[in-house]
Design a protein that fits this description.
Blueprint lengths: L2 E6 L5 E6 H7 L3 E5 L3 E8 L4 E2 L9 E3 L6 E4 L1 H9 L3 E8 L2 E9 L1
Antiparallel strand pairs: 1-2, 1-9, 3-4, 3-7, 4-5, 4-8, 6-7, 8-9
Length: 106
């Protein structure tokens, strides 16, 4: 298990410690269709790389779509990505908005 510190700055600063497994379940690299917010996309981003579900071949993805789009990277793929990261951002895009979380390995 790898422990990280996750910080959200807006609307108010919140800082928590979180395990790699919790990041994968709560903040997966994904794209999904939401009934209220439309298309939602979550990526992980470092200084030089954006980990985006749309940039991976199908064998790395899990397509959970039924009546609405829901595609995410497989958990083991995200776990491998996290092993190599010490500092990155989780960015959520929706309705022309962007929520950003700063993540640092503890």
């Amino acid at each position: 298990m790898i422990k990280f510190k996750l910080t959200r700055f807006y609307p108010q600063k919140v800082e928590i410690e979180i395990l790699d497994s919790q990041i994968i379940s709560m903040f997966p690299i994904e794209i999904q269709e939401h009934s209220t917010f439309g298309l939602i996309k979550r990526v992980w981003q470092t200084q030089d790389t954006v980990y985006d579900v749309e940039n991976y071949p199908d064998e790395y993805k899990e397509n959970l779509s039924s009546t609405k789009t829901y595609v995410k990277l497989k958990d083991d793929v995200m776990k491998e990505i996290l092993k190599g990261l010490s500092e990155f951002k989780i960015v959520l895009y929706y309705q022309d908005k962007k929520d950003t979380y700063q993540v640092e390995r503890v």
